[in-house]
Structures are given as C-alpha cells and as structure tokens.
Design goal:
Distance between the termini: 59 Å
Helix content: over 70%
Structural class: mainly alpha
Number of domains: 2
Shape: elongated
C-alpha cells in the first residue's frame, strides 16, 4: 500500500490487516516516508498529546535517541505541540520527558532551593 489514498482508506475502514502491518513493523509507511528520526519525534509528540505514562515516554524517547534524535530536538518536539495540546499538557509532560532523557527536574529544583 504505497499510495496515500489506499493507506487513508485502510485506516478509515479499520482494515485489520493493514493496521496489523503498521503495528508489527515500525519500518513501514511512516518511517519510510517521513524518515526514522522524524517518525520517532512524531511518536514523542503523540506521547505528550495523550498524556502517556512515564514508561511510554521512556520507550518513545529511547526510540527517538536510537534514530539519531538529539535531546534538544526531543525537547523542541515537546514545545512544538503546545499550541495544539495546551500549556497544561506540556507542563505535565515535561517532568516525564525529562526523566526519560535522564534529567530529574524535581531533584534539580530541590538542589536550587536552599
């Protein structure tokens, strides 16, 4: 299914075979068309949008880093979704994303507080 109309049709019709292919192989469609790093950053953005659990942030960030994304690109992705998700969602996601990057924001703030 290389044609975008066929892919949209498969998604709109909840084509189980097509959805199964997408879920089983991360190298299909999106990664091929967008590139692995961009697709991984989109997944980080989606993780923010759905207010995912910390373990999901860990997975999304690890995948993004494995594709060559830099920490600043991952943080920029968090910032880029704010007009759509709202500031409250981004503020809520920031500590989870930070932990996934190996930075404990709460601990850093405690270090600053005398």
């Amino acid at each position: 299914m290389d044609d975008y109309k066929e892919r949209l049709r498969g998604l709109a019709l909840h084509d189980d075979r097509f959805l199964g292919l997408l879920l089983a192989d991360e190298s299909t469609s999106s990664s091929v068309v967008l590139g692995a790093k961009t697709a991984a950053l989109v997944r980080v953005a989606a993780t923010v949008a759905v207010d995912a659990a910390p373990s999901s942030f860990q997975h999304a960030v690890a995948h993004a880093l494995a594709t060559g994304a830099r920490c600043d690109e991952i943080v920029a992705t968090l910032e880029a979704v704010m007009p759509v998700t709202g500031a409250a969602r981004v503020v809520s996601a920031a500590p989870k994303l930070a932990l996934a990057l190996g930075y404990d924001v709460e601990d850093a703030l405690e270090q600053l507080d005398p």
